[in-house]
Amino acid sequence: MMMRCGWSAAAVVAVVVMVGVMVASPVAGELARVEHPTKEDGSLAVLVVGDWGRKGQYNQTLVATQMGVIGEELAADFILSTGDNFYNDGLTGDNDTASFQESFTNIYTADSLQKPWYIVLGNHDYTGDALAQQSPAIRAVDSRWTSINKSFIVDSDIAEFFLVDTVPFVQKYWNESKFDWRQVAPRDTYLSTLLTDLGDAMSQSNATWKIVVGHHTISSGCEHGNTTDLVAMLLPVLKTYGADMYINGHDHCLQRITSIDSPLEFITSGGGSRAWAGKFKQTSDKLEFIYDGQGFLSMQLTMAEASFAFYDVTGAVLYSWQLANHSLLFSPRDEQSGGAAAAAGDRAARSAMDAPVITLLVFLVAVAAATAAAEMPRMEHPRKGDGSLSLLAVGDWGRRGAYNQSMVAAQMGIVGEKMDIDFVISTGDNFYKNGLTGVDDKAFEESFSDIYTAKSLHKPWYTVLGNHDYRGDALAQLSPVLRKVDSRWICIKSFVVSAEIADFFFVDTTPFVLKYWTDPKNSKYDWRGVSPRETYIANVLKDLEDALEQSKAPWKIVVGHHAIRSVSQHGDTKELLEHLLPILKAHGVDLYLNGHDHCLEHISSRDSKIQYLTSGAGSKAWRGVQTANTDKVEFFYDGQGFMSLRLTAAEASLAFYDVAGKILHIWMVAKPATGH
Length: 676
Description:
Layout lengths: L11 H11 L9 E4 L8 E6 L10 H15 L3 E4 L15 H9 L11 E3 L3 H4 L9 H6 L3 E2 L5 E4 L3 E5 L23 H18 L4 E5 L14 H6 L1 H6 L4 E4 L5 E5 L6 E5 L16 E6 L4 E6 L4 E6 L5 E8 L2 E3 L10 H6 L11 H10 L11 E3 L8 E6 L10 H15 L3 E4 L16 H7 L11 E3 L3 H4 L9 H6 L3 E3 L3 E4 L3 E5 L8 H4 L14 H18 L4 E5 L14 H6 L1 H6 L4 E4 L5 E5 L6 E5 L16 E6 L3 E7 L3 E8 L4 E8 L6
EC number: 3.1.3.2
Protein name: acid phosphatase
GO cellular component, one term: extracellular region
């Protein structure tokens, strides 16, 4: 059964949805079919988002906003949802209009998104009233919503989209009573019929592009990994009938994988809201790109080629590629650094990088250059198998190897190997004297990639900016272009690294310092994305306080460039004493780690448990003791060196090293069993 109708510009959305409603009961052996025309030039533009329904939380609203922007730029024809449309347990019924509107109608409000939404169900949708999302009552609330018989076809002339209900394939769900299996059980019969119908439809298709859409992954390097039931039952059908790509959600990430034994592309767009799972799996296929944060996918199709792009919550293009007759054509474009404002004007495409497994963990989180108010970008970094975590910290280093930078780097490599470190923290002033001139500045390689060459240092480098970095192109250090040069590099102005037993809160301290604004002397600071100062600082403090409040980690560690307490040249930073320190005390922060002063020092607070740790001796040093301090100075050394930190749930131990690798100071503390 195929239903067709004439199209008018005034009724495109309504007619397509109405067609979906009318074919709610296809004949046996044939999937319901909806006709959706291409543009007049024969092209088609589609947005894809999954795992989104959280009433605007977890950056869902930010993703929706950027979908509206890109949807307008591309003149999107429709949107595909890859499932898990309403968390945590779907809709309670077709009268649950409040949840429906709060997570869908009231979120995706842009004019460009007032197009048909073609929907598959996810496992979370099945734990509620699964039939509710198929109901005409829901479509009466918002006519964009098109979900038909759980599996159906969208026929767009040059492309056919085969939307497949994958939840019933997963055997383990049938062992749980919470799933709504009405009109599905018995499982074997349902799956057999569905696979036969899909095979018949694909065999009859004459479309240039055959695109299968489901909720669950077939091939994935993210948390859930491959879905074995789909690999066994669905994948052979796709290969047999020449599917070009399989698009899914379920894993809360964006990724592209190419099959090693067929032309199939496996594309995940499940970053519609909560993300940053930070759990990865090996895949036997080729992992081309992975990003663990929130975002969505765009797809532009013509008879000759297909173009794809992944976007983050700022609208920045993370990665793009093209396909033509199953031949891969990358199309990297000119990169330009910039924040959200620049991204809106320059959708710079990233070509893929062939990253080893360890560097994939780095790349997945790095491109979140901006985030919603009251939510700092968050990335997950797993601890070791024994539950411990080891890291090195170094600051004020970027001098092309001079001033003993190379010697410090060599010893970092040795200690890093002994400790089997998980990552490195840079406390800022990464490139002297005036940061980078742009994303193509060779200083990045000459001061970073070519210096920290030890195998043990090929781990993620979580980085904050220092005042010298702000004297150049500050946004360049945030750009994904640098991660293409060296995939270890993760630089975001303020963000959180969650490592289970410890949360690390990275804070952009340079804008706090008033003299940089009022008396910059001969320096010019790059305040793009920061001005006005008061608003920026208020947002940073609010976001930090919210993140600290939500943290359940045994250890809370804050990282910034400027010192709160120091007896070296720069001394205490009065703006941080006034604005930042009260928040740290109020929320039980254990350690504050900084650079700025070119020394190694450890100061204990006299009125809280906070330990102030300076690791700013990555290159030029020897400035001596300059000021007194009201807190207790446990250790001070004004030569070059670095710091190590080892954490378990029960204790923390740190050590300072000089350029010969000699341990200068050790300190240990136990974590009370009751926590904070």
